[in-house]
Amino acid sequence: MKARMLRNFSTVTEFVFLGLTDLRELELLCFLVFLAVYVVTVVGNSGMVVLILATARLHTPMYFFLCHLSLVDLCFSSNVTPKMLEVFLSDRKTISYPACLAQCYFFIALVHVEMYLLAVMAFDRYMAIGRPLLYGSKMSRHMCTALVLWPYVYGGLTGLMETMWTYSLAFCGPNEINHFYCADPSLIKLACSDTSKKEMSMFVVAGCNLSFSLFIILLSYLYIFRAILRIHSTAGRRKAFSTCVSHMTAVTIFYVTLFVMYLRPPSEESVEQGKTVAVFYTTVIPMLNPMIYSLTNKEVKEALVNQLSRKKIFS
User: What distance in Å separates the CA atoms of residue 121 and residue 61, rounded to the nearest whole number?
Assistant: First the structure.
């Protein structure tokens, strides 16, 4: 009740981003660098989606999930990077209160969608390697659709819940966000009402979901490695393991970054360190994922070469 009363008297209608730097020369350099990164991200993830949809041999559960991972990475980067690029060039580095909440919502929702998509992809690899005879029947189109749908639903609901907790906070000033996008730790420091429930919710939700999704992945790989060790031929073991390399690389980068970002109390030091990590997480990782899969996956490379060769023939 107190939080609601304070919310009604909140005087903040917009927030000001402090961004990554206040030096104009560096802002222009950052703009060019992150614009290039964003273009590569859009081209890479869009290209991966189109390649999978256009190549019949990639119409399998593994690439069905990869297609959705690329789509989520594209949306995730687009939620943060365009506004960040605008801030680099603008003298008035502001975002409205509703737009800030919307950015918070999509950030939290898409993070949870991606972590559980990675868990689903680990389960898919377990079924393909550990239960090859049942793979075709168990990983049917209906099952794959259900497995990819629940991360979206869960992520959307989690993002809504966390955003409503943020909405319940009162912001009376100052309104300067020590970040380049609307992030919960930075917003919490600006609230003039009790933030204990929001902080508790943030740590519980982040901790539980990170731990549970990572548990699914580690358990899946435990059974995957057991299955690989039972394969008698070296070539067979190498082929089975090669189908997991891309996913393991993406998982390692994703979870290490998330643990660094969120499992710390919101202090001045953690916010400053978090900005550096967040640059990598929000701009570089969405760009890296399609590169990881295209460079380390033989089928994707062959499909890309075939598509390029076909276009050259018809041009």
Answer: 9
